[in-house]
């Protein structure tokens, strides 16, 4: 290319750059791009970002059931360890049963003896009633003898001394009858109104046996719920006291999330709103679904060990956070188990913000166990056997 051609192309470019129409067109394109980007951002905010609240200040929570002994004793067996799964009612720890067995035998004998004593008292009442009947016969006989001899005294056919002796016999028979009635009433007071099994003495002995039987059963410590063992501190041969923590059981089925939202994010969060959750454990590959079940009654700073003194002169405003409780789907937890304390990222769909802010009264307990329900019933059944064995064939 010649120098004249190069110079000509440069001149043409300069003329094009100075063309107002082309420059306006370029500016319009740039402006259109900015407007389009702004419109897209506005639409995203209007239909997406304004309809959700997100926080990564969220952690998995769950029940941590502290297992402790209800009686004192020496540990003779430990049947589980950390990380192992246990089922509700499974035996986890055994204590030395010697002392409890001795006490159980003592109360068993006391119950049997109480039943026999009440039986004896009942028989005494029957004997006292028979004595009263006999004294009544004696009184009637003495009165009849006196009535037969009174006409003879009037006819001077009988000595007055003999009649006086008969009057004394009537008085003695009356006194004997009164004494017999008093003894019968005293005997009847201990057994009257109830049968042998319901007698207060038997009931007291039965209560002592029941307490001893339950204490003996508590030497075998069972899991109140199903879950995984953590923080096992009990050791073989250790002497433990009632209430001493032995281990922790963590059920990993009914977990929840406590998401700590900033106070300026709570305006549209309502109970019942759907939630999407991702965890650091599984990343974006696994998405959980839950729902809001409640908002905390206060900020974290209020319930801290040393609450902030906001009334001081050097106060600095700090954005507070309120925990929002989110329930997880148990089916998803079964497929992808989580652990308490793990981090999570939650996104609450606030499209429908007409739900309640305050939770209503709970219609069912958040946690319960039935593994101890049969203990008292079994104790009563054992007491009934002892009572029946000592009632005798006549009762």
UniProtKB/TrEMBL annotation:
Residues 98-218 form the Multidrug export protein EmrA/FarA alpha-helical hairpin domain. InterPro entries: AaeA-lik-b-barrel, EmrA/FarA_HH, MFP. Residues 163-190 form a coiled coil. It is found in: Cell envelope. It holds the Pfam family HH_EMRA. Keywords: Coiled coil, Membrane, Transmembrane, Transmembrane helix. The chain crosses the membrane at residues 26-48. Signal peptide: none annotated. This is HlyD family efflux transporter periplasmic adaptor subunit. It comes from Dyella mobilis. The lineage of its organism: Bacteria, Pseudomonadati, Pseudomonadota, Gammaproteobacteria, Lysobacterales.
